[in-house]
């Protein structure tokens, strides 16, 4: 997912993040990064949902709250 994100291949990156989150759904950083990728694709509802899950898992995650302000 991160390699595709770095190459700006956002559709593929989002697919990878979605697959990873099916098995590893307790890591707030993954939700934050998925939110960033979804926002790049103008998938605003999905980006907000991922950001909300990030701050739910880690209420002290400032970047998660920042991402919520952007979506």
Helix percent band: over 70%
* Uncertain segments: none
Shape: globular
The assigned structural class equals mainly alpha
Counted by DSSP, the helix tally is 5
Per DSSP E runs of 2 or more residues, the count of β-strands stands at 0
Provide the succession of SSEs: HHHHH
Using only C-alpha atoms, the radius of gyration works out to 11 Å
- On the 0-100 scale, what is the average pLDDT? 93
Largest sheet: none
Q: What is the terminal-to-terminal distance?
A: 21 Å
Short description:
The chain is mainly alpha-helical.
Description:
The protein contains 5 helices and no strands. The chain has helices at 2-6, 10-23, 28-40, 44-57, 62-70. Helices cover 77% and strands 0% of the residues. The two termini are 21 Å apart. The chain is an all-alpha fold.
Question: What's the arrangement of secondary structure elements?
Answer:
Blueprint lengths: L1 H5 L3 H14 L4 H13 L3 H14 L4 H9 L1
List its salient traits.
mainly alpha; single chain; 5 helices
């Amino acid at each position: 997912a991160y390699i595709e994100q770095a190459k700006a291949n956002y559709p593929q990156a989002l697919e990878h993040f979605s697959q990873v989150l099916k098995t590893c759904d307790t890591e707030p950083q993954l939700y934050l990064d998925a939110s960033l990728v979804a926002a790049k694709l103008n998938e605003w509802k999905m980006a907000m949902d991922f950001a909300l899950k990030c701050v739910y898992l880690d209420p002290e995650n400032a970047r998660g709250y920042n991402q919520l302000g952007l979506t």
